[in-house]
Amino acid sequence: MKVPNHIAIILDGNGRWAKAKGMPRGYGHIKGCANLETICDDIKDLGVKYLTVYAFSTENWKRSREEVEGLMKLFRSYLKKCMKSAEKNHMRVKIIGDPSAFAPDIQDKIRQLEEFSKDYDELYFQIALNYGSRDEITRGMRRMAQDAAEGKLIPAQITEETIEGYLDTAGVPDPDLLIRTSGELRISNFLLWQIAYAELIFTPVAWPDFDEEQLNACIDEFSMRDRRYGGVKA
Ligand code: FPP
């Protein structure tokens, strides 16, 4: 079985999952958050080296105040708990996206987690928070233009690698497999540059129900596809 080097997941369907059970949307996010911890362990055990998850988009601020506040509460407790997972799984954690919109204590927790886990190298876990791919590219291109204006960069010498170096994911290999749960057939502004050659799998299963069996089924399907580009270990 070919195991992807880098799996990216759009964690979708918490709200619908909760609604189907007659519960508030926040309950779905709590279950989704718990599931993320489990799947992280499973992914590490499979020997996958990079995992990137879409947990909060630049668009998600438009949700109700109650839901956004619930998610912020969840991020606070998760970022703290994640230190233990990082230690257990020897996992380096990096937040991608623009953290400046979060409350100062959340920004502190992000910095602490990244600093605490920076020397672990068995799993590299990127959590996209206040992330949008167009926003990432815009922020990166602003910095690139600034460097060019300051003479640090010659425009004619800009390559794809130069651009990659200005993205939040700089230094991280592109995803080989992108999974979106809960039936939507969209990319929703996630890693637009980085998924150029990724295999895409859309599963109807809602994120809180996406378990080890579902994960293995996705990897089996990935294994059977004939990939022309992108590196993956045999
Ligand atoms: C999509 O489900 C999910 C989110 C907007 C939030 C994802 C958050 C988690 C999985 C939990 C927290 C994660 C971390 C890193 C602490 P949805 O609400 O869009 O579901 P719906 O499409 O059914 O409404």
Brief write-up:
The chain is α/β, with parallel strands linked by helices and 234 residues long. The chain is 44% helix and 15% strand.
Portion in strands: 15-25%
Secondary-structure element series: EHHEHEHEHHEEH
Anisotropy-based shape: globular
Structural category: alpha/beta
C-alpha termini separation: 7 Å
- The oligomeric state of the chains shown is single chain
Rounded to the nearest angstrom, the radius of gyration is 18 Å
Query: Whole-number average pLDDT?
Result: 96
What's the number of helices? 7
How helix-rich are the residues, as a percent range?
40-55%
Biggest sheet descriptor = 6 strands, parallel
Q: Low-confidence parts, pLDDT < 50 over ≥5 residues?
A: none
Ions, cofactors and other ligands present here are: farnesyl diphosphate
The order of strands across the largest sheet is: 3-4-2-1-5-6
Number of strands: 6
Overview of this protein structure:
With 234 residues, the protein is α/β, with parallel strands linked by helices. Helix content is 44%, strand content 15%. The chain has 7 helices and 6 strands, in the order βααβαβαβααββα. It has a 6-stranded parallel β-sheet with strand order 3-4-2-1-5-6, sandwiched between helices. α4 (104-117) links the parallel β3 and β4. It is globular. The chain binds farnesyl diphosphate. Residues 11-16, 25, 29, 32-33, 36, 55-56, 60, 74-75, 78, 127, 182, 207 line the site of farnesyl diphosphate. Farnesyl diphosphate is lined by residues 11-16, 25, 29, 32-33, 36, 55-56, 60, 74-75, 78, 127, 182, 207.
